[in-house]
Design brief:
Distance between the termini: 209 Å
CATH architecture of the domain at 163-264: Alpha-Beta Complex
Mean pLDDT: 78
Largest sheet: 6 strands, antiparallel
Strand content: 5-15%
Strand order of the largest sheet: 3-8-4-5-6-7
Low-confidence stretches: 33-37, 128-146
CATH superfamily of the domain at 163-264: endopeptidase domain like (from Nostoc punctiforme)
Radius of gyration: 64 Å
Number of strands: 8
Structural class: alpha+beta
CATH class of the domain at 163-264: Alpha Beta
Helix content: 40-55%
Oligomer: single chain
Order of helices and strands: HHHHEEHHEEEEEE
C-alpha cells in the first residue's frame, strides 16, 4: 500500500454546476429586492406629505338641538314682529277713535245749537202766525194785508207768517217749503185748491198784466205752462215766496227778480 493512500487531500471539494447556479440565483434575487426597496424609498422621500384633519362629527342629538334652537329663535323673531304690528295697529286705532270722538262731540254740539235756534225760530213764527191770523180776521192790521181784503188778505197773512222758513225741494210745510208747495198751502187756507207744481199753477186762473197786479195774485217766472218758480204778490211792489236754499221763504221787491207773468185766482 502506498504511504499516501490514507492521507486526506487538503483541496476543497469541487462544487457542482447546479449548486453554483442556485447560489447565483439567490444572490440575484436578494440584490433585486434591495434595489426595489431602495427605489420605493427614494420615491416616497420625493413626494410631499399631506396631513388630513378630521372634523368632529355631529351626533344626532346635537344636530337636533341645533335645529330646535334655530327654530325657536325664528319663532321668537316672528312673535316679536307680530306683537309690534299689533301694537302699531292698536295705537293707530286708538288715535282714530280719539279723533272720531272729538269730531262726534263737535258735531253733536253744532246740532244741539242748531236745534235750539230752530226751536226758538219756530216759537217766534208760531207767535207771529197767531197774531197775523187774529189781525186778518178782524181786518184791523192794514200793514200785514197791504190793502188786501178778504181771501187775499188771509193768503198774504199766511205767507208772511212763513218768512224765515227753510227752502226744501218738495217741501209742503209746516216749517220747510218749495215755491209751489207754499202757494198751494196758502191758497188752501181760503178754499182754493191749486195744482201742486209751478208749471200748472202758472196757467190756473186768469192771466193778468204785471202793470195791473193786485195783492193775492200769483207771480210766475218762465213762460205760462212751463214756469220754474212762483210766488204771491203782497202789494206795494213786494212779493213773498220760497226762493231758494240760501234765502228760504223771504219777502223781496219785484226789482229783486222781475217775474214773467201773473195769474189771478181770487
Amino acid at each position: 500500500m502506498s504511504l499516501t493512500a490514507h492521507i486526506r487531500s487538503h483541496r476543497k471539494p469541487r462544487r457542482s454546476a447546479s449548486t453554483i447556479a442556485m447560489r447565483a440565483g439567490v444572490a440575484s434575487g436578494v440584490l433585486g429586492t434591495l434595489a426595489v426597496a431602495t427605489a420605493a424609498g427614494t420615491a416616497n422621500a420625493a413626494e410631499p406629505v399631506t396631513q388630513t384633519l378630521e372634523l368632529p362629527v355631529l351626533t344626532g342629538d346635537l344636530a337636533a338641538q341645533v335645529a330646535q334652537s334655530a327654530q325657536a329663535t325664528q319663532q321668537a323673531a316672528a312673535n316679536y314682529q307680530l306683537q309690534a304690528e299689533r301694537d302699531a295697529a292698536s295705537a293707530a286705532a286708538a288715535k282714530e277713535a280719539k279723533k272720531d270722538l272729538a269730531h262726534a262731540k263737535a258735531e253733536a254740539k253744532q246740532k244741539a245749537e242748531a236745534a235750539r235756534k230752530a226751536a226758538a225760530e219756530r216759537a217766534t213764527r208760531a207767535a207771529e202766525r197767531t197774531t197775523l191770523t187774529t189781525a186778518s180776521s178782524s181786518s184791523s192790521d192794514s200793514t200785514s194785508s197791504s190793502t188786501a181784503t178778504g181771501s187775499a188778505a188771509a193768503v198774504i197773512a199766511f205767507v208772511k207768517a212763513q218768512i224765515g222758513d227753510a227752502y226744501v225741494s218738495g217741501g209742503t210745510g209746516p216749517n220747510s217749503w218749495d215755491c209751489s208747495g207754499l202757494m198751494q198751502t196758502a191758497f188752501k187756507q181760503v178754499g182754493v185748491d191749486l195744482p201742486r207744481v209751478s208749471q200748472d199753477q202758472s196757467t190756473f186762473g186768469t192771466q193778468v198784466s204785471l202793470d195791473n197786479l193786485l195783492p193775492g195774485d200769483i207771480l210766475y217766472w218762465g213762460s205760462a205752462g212751463s214756469a220754474y218758480h212762483v210766488a204771491v204778490y203782497v202789494g206795494d211792489g213786494m212779493f213773498v215766496g220760497a226762493q231758494n236754499p240760501s234765502t228760504g221763504v223771504a219777502e223781496k221787491p219785484l226789482s229783486y227778480d222781475p217775474p214773467t207773468g201773473a195769474v189771478r185766482v181770487l
